[in-house]
Specification:
The chain is about 35% helix and about 0% strand. It contains 3 helices and no strands. It starts with a helix and ends in an 11-residue tail after the last helix.
Amino acid sequence: MLHTWYGNHPDAARTGTGMFGPARSVPADAPASDRLAAYFGRTVRPGYGS
């Protein structure tokens, strides 16, 4: 899912559905699940789930 979505859909397309917020920043070395969650506008706490 990360490779299908990440970077391929601008904020306007994702947020227009009302299901997602604007992308949030995460470290480049964050796990794929954290990067995808942040891309969909979710807040990712450092170290959560590690």
